[in-house]
Amino acid sequence: MRPGRLSKEQALQKLRHYCAYQERCHQEAREKLFGFGLRGEEVDELISKLIEDNYLDEERFAVQFAGGKFRMKQWGRRKIEAELKARQVSTYCIRKGLAQIQADDYQKTLSRLAEDKYNALSTEEPFVARAKTMSYLLQKGYEPDLASAAIDNLAKP
After folding, report:
1. Residue 146 included in any domain
2. Which tens digits make up the pLDDT trace of 18-43?
């Protein structure tokens, strides 16, 4: 065994703690194992063991990730989906995670964000304020048609 490399048993114990502390996706667990100096078959074996012992559950991760990013950072569905794809989460799990976001909560959050941003730009020309608000909402991951509708609702007298 090389110095700085953990045995399979040590790595499994550390990873159990790592996964128990916070939900993790398979990619995060795999990267952690590579960081412990493990490779190939050993990594696959330990990932399987963690799934078997219910320490890793990609569907549970996607649901918690989507809900958390929406509630805490007010991210839109597009940004959440992109982030989950970057973490190599399956399309099925991504759909499950996004389905947990209630449509009315999503619309209320979008409307509140649009209103807050638009009002903060009150010194700007109306056209510029609309464009900056739209850009902000798109950066947060909201769909262009929903963002546009939210801004249109603000502009009505």
Report:
1. yes
2. 999 999 999 999 999 888 888 888 88
Determine whether 47 is exposed, middle or buried from the number of CB atoms within 10 Å of its CB (0-12, 13-18, 19+): middle
Handedness of CA 70, 76, 77, 83 (dihedral sign): negative
Nearest-CA neighbor of 113 among 65, 79, 157, 87? 79
Domain coverage including residue 138:
103-155
Q: How wide is the angle at C-alpha 152 spanned by C-alphas 127 and 74, nearest 5°?
A: 100
Q: What Rg, from alpha-carbon coordinates, does the chain have?
A: 21
Query: Do 19 and 47 reside in the same domain of the chain?
Result: yes
Q: Give the pLDDT confidence of 76-93 residue by residue, as tens digits.
A: 999 999 999 999 999 999
Split into its structural domains, the chain has a count of 3
State pTM to two decimals: 0.89
